[in-house]
Structure formats: structure tokens, C-alpha cells
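Quick one: C-alpha cells for this chain, please?
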Amino acid sequence: MRSSREALKVLLLVSALGLSWAACSHAGPAPEARVPSRGPETCSTEVRRAEVLLRVVDTQGRPIPGASVALNPPMLMAHGPAPSESQDGLLTDAAGELRLTPRVDSDIPPFIIINAEGYRDATWSLDLLPGEQRRVDVRLTPSVAISGRVVDVRGQPLPGAEVMGHGVTFYWGEMRTTADAEGRFSLSGLPPGPVALRVSLGGQAPNDMEVVAPRSDVELVWKTSTLSVEVRDARGQPLPGVLLGVQDASALGLPMWMGAPRTDARGKAELGPLPPGPHRVQALWARPGFQWVTSQEVVLAPNQGHSVVLSFEGSRVRPPLTGRVTDAEGRPLRDVEILATPVTSPDPGSLRELLLSETPDEEQSRARSDAQGRFTLEGLREGPVRIRAMEGSESFEESPPVEVPPGHDTVALLLPRRSTLQGEVVDPEGRPVTNLRFRVNDEHVDSPTGRFEGIIVPSGRVTLAVIAEGFAVERRTVQVPARKAFRLTEPIVLQPGREVSGRVVKDDGCTPIAGAVVMLDREAPPRDSRMDPLTTRTDAEGRFTLSRLEREPLVLRVDKRPPARSGPPGQIPMVRVPVAADEDSVTVRFGPEASVTGVVTDGEGRPVAGADLGSDCTSFYQPVDATGRFVLHGLEGGRECVLHVDVSRAERAAEHSPPPLVFTPRRVVLPKRGTLRVDLTAREGPASLRVRLPRKDVSAFLLEGAVPRPSTWEKTRHLLMGALTPDPRSRLSRSPDAPHDARMEAVFSQLSPGHYTLLVTRDGSEGSDVAVVHLPVTLDGPGAKQVEVDFSTARTLAAE
């Protein structure tokens, strides 16, 4: 199941090389500003290394001799700076051991890939300190196969059938193959355990079954059904040329139109092969200017033919709906797209997104305004309709939806004009500057001419950044009136820019920090630094260059290991460094670091091999080795961290069903320097909680004890860091194809009786307000308790 890992991803930083400045803006208070440090007089040029005794074993702990080990293979480094050396073709000895001495003169951890015949490949991250000596035990999972035949219901082979397999208990990827001329197939490279198989032919009629690997006698019987469809018009006559779509009614997805047939001259079509089960078949009758839609559900039995009649019979057409579209001054607008849909159907929302859809499945009528702004909508079925309008140049906003009841045959539409901004941009001598780029409220805005004219902006308080080659970025705050063409009265004068370069290093003054974000400090950091002209990142040597800066004293903000996605990331180690007006080089040194080490075990003291350890204090998941050991280096000393164990990839996760293997997050305080020992043991308890969730786009978290309702989103985020997340295998999947109103269930097991607090958050777009349900829960004793979440009790908290 994906629910637990998805919830952990909301809480943890999963990669050091992505950016999401919404998360950065949530960082806690920064340490005191540090004076630029030149570091030691000289940094040693000696290559600094660590020593690793790698031991490769099988699932029984027996050594695997001759395993091939690749150190820092280039393919792993495609998304960021790579360590400075790579080795291949290293082999374990008769005891399954190999000594490695990787370079550790950067904060990029070395990687290894281990492969051995008869086993699945393993990838491992070695988070090491210079001079560190460590033993790492890596367990390889046997590579097994599933083979057999694909046949039809008569037992005849199906050459070319596609077979796909993926893990059931934990996710390990997907394997695919194609059946040969005799229908035989083989999927190799699988771990032992349950595997979900799917067989289809030409992508049609997928059939599913579950088997346990290894197995060599699987017979996959491709069961199919056919469906005859007849479509009739409003008078009950056959309707040719109608597009037919079909979907699995249990999949909660959209109709599948691609490659779907149309009805013939008799209004009929054959659909199939289709998998048995409930389906919804939909007919879309498209004519110039309008389209009608009707659908019906049918249950298909295996190896049988079925028929269904889809009819528009009895539908009555309302008279043509005419109207005129103008701007706020009453001037007609031509070439405006007009869309009308029945009020009884869901509101399509943004007209722009709907028009980009290749096959919109909403019933609708379309028209385009002429030079006088007039339009006519035809072919609408009787009943109230909803009308929207959009002008293609983006100079106007979309019109709000207008409902037109029956009996009204005319309508007037008004498109509000968007606010625009223009002015003059000059150099210090007053000469015009061209080839300009603009950012408005941190977002790139096009200027087709490269001049400061007709820049579309929102109304109200706007932050404008003007960018030109060779000049410092000029930022202005402007109050823009609503729906007006606003011109600045004073020219914007660009000053010559300068560059500041330097290095970002660890506390020793020498070890570079790669991937750190260096930016001009300002009141509101950008939400997304990828396009920000005043932000850059350090390379593998910790070096950076920041250009287009003003020639005056400034402050640089340096964030170490930025998060890869939004969500509560915890505090990010960060320093602020003042730079003088005449200074063009600086070294930024971070404070002391701490480490956390320990062992992860189940309730019986057995190591949980293959689990991942994450924390809000680091950007990486660190793997747990075959003896349950883990090490986290490079943490900011003296701060509080929350440790999470993720078992979704662990081999032992499959062995703990039931009961599932689950862990409670551990909150710890790091030493200023040095290493903290923390052992983590799987949670065990006789009670469980099943939470029925009202929607797909929500996340559930459980806090131990009776916790008061948090008053702000910042306080809520802090609580969620240490919250329990649902079991890895909750009963209902969170399919991305499921609609937002699909009901889901989250399961928290292995709980002790007592008081708890359930927090359910509704996922929102970045920067939007967050709805939170706060529900006290008491588990009186052993057994399962079920609760229902009602979002009518939710409190909306403003996202900072």
C-alpha cells in the first residue's frame, strides 16, 4: 500500500537535490548571523577517506562470495553533482566481504550497487565521515521467477499477451514480458512472496490474479466479455457516428475514449474484448457546435456477450440561445469562446483547461463571438444551462458562470479586463534598456517585445522584478488598480550589477557542502528558486556565483539541503552572511554537526533489514543494513529531530502480516557535537483504530494523548512531525485515478489502550489555507475501533 509512504513523504525530506521554497518559507528561526569566514589558512590537499568493511549476505545471513560492487556509478548521479571518483568490477571474497575506502571530502554520500547471480540488485548509500571505520552488512534478496502459459477460455495459447507483475506486500517495481508463440511467459528478477499479475492482449481487457513467487506452473486464463451497443436519437431512430467510451465502474476513473469505436449506419457498435465486471458505457454524440452525452451501467459476465441500448429518446431541444459579449466599457469583443453546459452536470471549472482537453466528455454547446460580440448557442437540451466565456489573448479574465433558466433565450456576458503594467526602464545615463525579463510576485511573466509594456499583473499589491543582462535586478512594490492599464509615472533606473562568488563548507572550514541554496536575503523568499535570478546552488566543490547584485552592502542567505517538495519539512540549517559593498568573495561556514546511530528491530528483537530511516533533520532516507544498524551524519547539532522508520521496502514487512510491522516516530534532541545512540523497536499493542475518511485528498495522523486543538497551521505542522501515520497496508488504496469524493480508510494498528488525538488534514494547493479536523479518540481495550471523519467540523488554518 502507498498510504503510509505517501504520508511519510508529506513529513520528510526525501531528496537533497530538489527545491520547493514554500517549504523553505516555513523554516524556523535562523541561528545568529555568521561573519564571513576565510576558514583555516590552508585546507589540506590530502584526499580524505573512510574505511568500510562491506559484508554481503543472503536472507539466512550466509556470505555471498563473488558479488560485484560498483562505487559511485555515474547513472546514480544524473540529477546532481557526483562524487569525484567511480570504481567498478570490485568483488567480495570467500567470506562475502570487501574493503572499500571511498573519498568523503564532500557532503555527497558515496553510493554502491551490489549484484550477484541469483539475487536482486541492491543500491546502498554510505553516509560517512572522514576517517570513519564502519561495517555495513547488506542482505541480498533471492531473485526468483514466475513462469507459465497464457491461454483463452478454451485452453488455446495467446501469443503476444502482455504479462505484468508487481509486489503486493511491499512495492519493488514492475516487471513486464510478452508471451511467446505457445503462450509461454517468464518473469524473472522477482523477490520471493506474493505477486500481483495482470494479463492483457493489446492493452485490452486486463485480467488480474495473485500468485506467490517462485512458481513455474501458472496458467493465466484470459477471460473476456463483449458488449453490443445501440444508440438512438431523440425520436428513437438509430444514431450513426456516435463516439463510445467505456470504463471499469469500480475503478472510479474517466471513460476510455482513445481508440474507441463509433456507431455504424445502424447506430450499432461492438465493444470488446472487455474484462468481466461492472462497467459504465457512455455515448458522446458530437455535432458542429454541440454534443450530447448519455451513459448506462452494465455488469459483464465472463465469456458472454451482452447488449445495451443508449438512448436520447424523449430529449427536447431548447430554442437557440443568443447573446453578446463585451468588456467593462461596453465595447464588443470578437473571437471569444462561449461554452454552455447543463446546470445538472458538474461545473467544468476553468474553461481554458476544458478547451485544452482532447475529448471533453461534458455535454455542451460552443460558439465564438463575431465582430459585434454576438454569438448563438444551438443544440442545447431543454433545461437550465450554465454559460462561461474566455478570450484567447489572456488580456481578459474568464467570465464568471452565468445560469440561464428555461424560457430565457438571450444573455449578456461581460469579460473583465486584466490589470496591466507598463513604464520606462533606463540605465543610469537615462538611455532605454531593452531585452527585459520580468517576474511578478515571484512568477515569470512574458513580454513579447522585451519592453516594459502591457505586462499582465494581478490587481493590488504587486512585487515586480526587472531583469536585464549586465544590470542588478531592480525590485519594486506597486499598488495596481483593478482591471486597469496602469503606467508608472517615474522610470525604473537599472544600476550596473556585480557578482559575488565563494564556497559553502562545513564547520572544519574545508569540507564542501554541495547542493546548498545561496540567495539574496529578503523579506519573502521565493516559492520556487528554479527561475529566481537572485538564487543559485553550490556545485560538488561547494562553490557558487551569484550575479545581478547591487553594488551596496547586502546579506546572503544560505540554506543547506533544501527539501524536494512542499509539506512540513522541519527546519532547514541556514545561515545569513553579510557581504560588504566592495567584497566579491566569501566563504560560508556552517556550525557543528551531530550524528545519530542505532539499531531497528521488531518486537522480538530481530533486525528489520531493508527498512529506511528518515528524519525532519535530513534530506535523505538512510537504509538500515542486514543487522538493523543505521547511521545518520551531518545533522545540525543541538536541535530537536523526529526519526521515522519506513518499512515499505523492508523484506521483513512481508513476514509481519498479520500483525503489520509499524513504528512510532521518536523525537530526540541532538548533542551539540558527537553521536547520539537511539534504538528503535516496532510498536506492539492489542488495539487498532480504523478511520473512515470522506475524501481522497485528505491525510490522517494520530497523536498519543489528549492534545488540545492547535490554533495555527505552524503549530499543527510541528505536531504532525511526531504523529503516527497509517499502516503501510491500509485496506483501501489511494488510487490517483479516484475522484476527490471517493471514500478511503486509514488503519492504525498495534496501539496500546488509552487516549489519542486524530488530526485529518485536507490537502490543498501550495500556499492555500488548510482544513483540519481535530477528533479525540479513546481506545478502551483490545480490539478494533472505527471512527468516521466529518469535515463539517473542520477548522480552516491559514498556511504561512
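The helical segments are 3-11, 21-24, 351-356, 713-721.
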